[in-house]
Write a structure and sequence with these properties.
Blueprint: E1 18-27, E2 30-40, H1 46-95
Length: 96
């Protein structure tokens, strides 16, 4: 299990030649998270970094979509409760 921690460890790594990069994940104008990528025995090349940034962009888009869907569902539920409450009050006025 020692090797699994090697990517993120600050002490010497048994694998040697460890390279890491950190890529922020943005959705809209807000930072949503961080993508950390590690590679052993060779430095990152431009293609690696382009692919990582593209992946972070897709993650950001998906996180934004999921959050938007969740907010829309909350609004639908709130509106449904308000509608039921109005109907119940109207029913009580008519029946009472």
């Amino acid at each position: 299990m020692k090797h699994k921690k090697c990517v993120f460890a600050t002490q010497a790594c048994d694998f040697g030649n460890k390279y890491t990069t950190i890529i922020p994940i943005f959705a809209g104008k807000y930072r949503q998270g961080t993508l950390m990528i590690a590679k052993f025995n060779s430095a990152f090349v431009d293609e690696d970094l382009i692919l990582a940034e593209y992946g972070a962009s897709l993650l950001g888009i998906e996180m934004f979509r999921a959050r938007s869907e969740e907010e829309a569902e909350n609004i639908r539920e709130r509106d449904s409760v308000k509608s039921c409450s109005r109907n119940f009050k109207l029913f009580r006025v008519r029946s009472g």
